Amino acid sequence: MPPAVPAPIYRHAAPSGPWPWMDFDTDSDLTLNRDNAPTSPGAAGQLWRGYPESLFGNWKPDQVKRSKMLSNCSELDMCSVHWLDVLTDGTFTILDKEGRDQTTRVTPERINEFWELLQTPRPANIRVRALFVDNLSMSVLQMLGTNYNIEPFFFSSSLNWIPSHYQEEVRRSKGDHITITLPFMRAMQNPVTRPPTPVDDSESPGSVRSLPSQLIFTDEDQVIDTQAALALSGGNILLLDLLAVHMVRSEDSSTIISYHPSSSFRRPSPKQLHSLVYRAGQSVYWQKIFAQSKDPTFLFLAILWYALYAWDQAFESLYAHINWLESQVLLTNNINLTRKLHIIQAHLLHYQSLLQDFRKSVEFLNKTPNPAMDSDDYSSDERKDSMELMAKECANLLSEIGRLENRRLMLSSRLKNVMDLAFATVNIIDSKHMKDLTEATVRDSGAMKQISYLTMIFLPASFTASVFGMNVDQITGQPGQETLARYLAVALSLTCATSWLVVACQPRSQFVSEDSTLLQRAGWPVVYLLKNLIKNGDRNRYRGFRILFEEILAHG
User: Fold this and answer.
1) Alpha helical stretches, state H, 223-336
2) Residue 191 CB: number of other CB atoms within 10 A?
3) How far is 150 from 169, CA to CA, in rounded Å?
4) Least enclosed by CB within 10 Å: which of 23, 78, 316, 415?
5) Contact at 8 Å (CB) between 231 and 219?
6) Pairing between strand 236-250 and 230-231?
7) Using CA atoms, how far apart are residues 538 and 174, in angstroms rounded to an integer?
8) Measured between alpha carbons, how far is 144 from 83 in angstroms, rounded to an integer?
9) Residues 26, 70: Cα–Cα separation, whole Å
10) CB of 127 within 8 A of CB of 248?
């Protein structure tokens, strides 16, 4: 299973935070202020070696190390950069002038060639250039950061899975920098399970019958960790993914950088995203948009649609999984399934915050117009039409995000319904067991009643035998034995003593209250008698006796 992603550290999300990746417990003012001079650049032709401290002096080596911005990038592996250009007429191209694929493979031996390529002036007919970086190496990161003056927060936020969106380096009528780091959910085949059983073409892929006969889970001991992948039936998982996009908007030619540190389970493949964005340019709808507006931000908006498609596919897989769980609850009445239902419910609550971040990112893009559109190269009508078109397309994407949120709420309601059904089923089973137990108790009480009847039948005979077995003068007729009067005196005395002791030792009864003292319990017959006399008779007549008796009991 893919490992869980780290919990986001939101305080290090944007450059508005004045202390990037500082730890107040270990960092001191003396350590931070001792040397504010920027790191000297490398050898001639390698000015990028000192990034990020050479451009951003507050990023000291300890903070760079703590953010893992450079340490996570390999210097020995090959890094691939896929290029895509949007021309001034709105057409998309992935080929250079000679018709070759614009994919640059950067190896340790060809580092300087890539730096020279970044320094090469662009053709005048390129409106925006998009770079999709695969397996980002440390050298390529420093080159891109130096050449485009990128805030280090872009790399640190995406590497640490921190949602963020911010604008910086705003130049009126010239351009700015905008960054969006957006976590989202997507579905994929579980890498630790075999492919699911093929289904009949006549059955819908999302139907309950099309799923395998037993649930494929690899997380039987999984705790509720919303940062970890969620295993589903059918051999699929839902895992957290990330879009990290930085855009340099300018009046001449803009640049988009899509950051992909490694080709692992997560993050969309750079080659795949590169191909999808190119296909968006072949869409008639988007061709009209790029032909109508010269704002390069629309390419950024098109990339955000990838996250929406991934969300939609993830909810489709989750819908089929919840269908399966509903059928299992109805068929098996297994209370252990409620644990899996609670895990899914926790993930759905986490998805709510992710969708809110998605919505905020789109709203940020809509509310952050391109400063370059205020230049004299664009008329007021062009600016107005471009802003209205951006508002319209952002509203379309926000509407789809609202649909996703409604679907999440629907799935959450269905889960609650299934959990209520599971608990109701268990309650019905418990009620049936209680009914059986009650019936058994009634049968036992009937048997005890029959025994009581038998005892009542033989009780007179037993009493008569006991009386005739007594050695008293009145029965045996022999003088010198005990008399019946002595027997009655002893029997009544023992009966009274036993009754007195039982009542005195009870915690609470009609004769003794719960707060009675030990002496009041010992004299309960007198106390009880006085209470009834005062209650039923002349209160003034017996009040003095009662007060006197209580004083005697109180003082011992």
Assistant:
1) 270-282, 284-292, 297-332
2) 12
3) 10
4) 23
5) yes
6) antiparallel
7) 107
8) 14
9) 21
10) no
Instruction: Quote the CA–CA distance of 181 and 165 in Å, as a whole number.
Output: 6
The pLDDT, as a whole number, for residue 491 is 81
Collapsed DSSP state (helix, strand, coil) of residue 80: strand
Strands 230-231 and 126-134: unpaired
Q: Is-above-0.85 flag for pTM?
A: no
DSSP symbol at 373: G
Tokens encoding 285: 């709808």
- Contact call for residues 305 and 286 (beta carbons, < 8 A): no
Peptide bond into 52 cis (omega under 30): yes
Enumerate the β-bridge partners of residue 82: 103, 132
- What does pLDDT average to in each consecutive run of 10 residues of the chain (556 residues)? 81 84 65 46 68 90 87 78 92 78 86 91 92 90 94 90 93 94 90 54 38 40 77 87 94 89 62 91 92 94 95 94 83 73 90 96 95 90 94 97 96 85 72 83 80 78 75 71 77 84 79 78 80 64 59 59
- The whole-angstrom distance between residue 254's C-alpha and the CA centroid of its chain comes to 38
For the stretch 24-32, contacts whose Cβ atoms lie closer than 8 Å and that sit 24 or more positions apart, written own/partner, are 27/62, 31/62, 32/60
Nearest to 130 by CA among 310, 288, 281, 311: 281
Which residue is it, tokens 């239902």? 341
What is the distance between the alpha carbons of residues 531 and 511, in angstroms, rounded to a whole number? 10
Give the C-alpha separation, 19 to 11, whole Å: 9
Q: Is the dihedral of CA 164, 156, 264, 350 positive or negative?
A: negative
**Is residue 318 within 8 Å of 302, Cβ to Cβ?**
no
| E strand or H helix that includes residue 534 | helix 524-536
Which phi and psi (to 5°) does residue 211 adopt?
-80, 160
Distance set, CA 216 to CA 212, 213, 266, 416 (Å): 8, 9, 21, 23
Mean pLDDT, the chain, integer: 81
Which tokens in the block code for residue 105?
């493979």
Query: In sequence order, what are the beta bridge partners of 260?
Result: 134
Q: For the chain, give the number of residues.
A: 556
**Cβ-count burial of 264 within 10 angstroms (0-12 exposed, 13-18 middle, 19+ buried)?**
exposed
Is 86 within 8 Å of 281 (Cβ atoms)?
Answer: yes
Beta bridge partners of 178: 167, 247
What are the Cα distances from residue 146, in Å, to 89, 262, 276, 295, 324? 30, 21, 28, 25, 52
For residues 296-305, one letter each, b for 16 or more C-beta atoms within 10 angstroms of the residue's C-beta and e for the rest, the string is bbbbbbbbbb
Whole-number Å distance between alpha carbons of 316 and 238: 11
Strand partners of residue 243: 182
pLDDT at 471: 76
Q: How many whole angstroms separate alpha carbon 161 and alpha carbon 469?
A: 96
Q: Distance between CA 47 and CA 90 in Å, rounded?
A: 35
- Please give the biggest Cα pair distance in the chain: 145
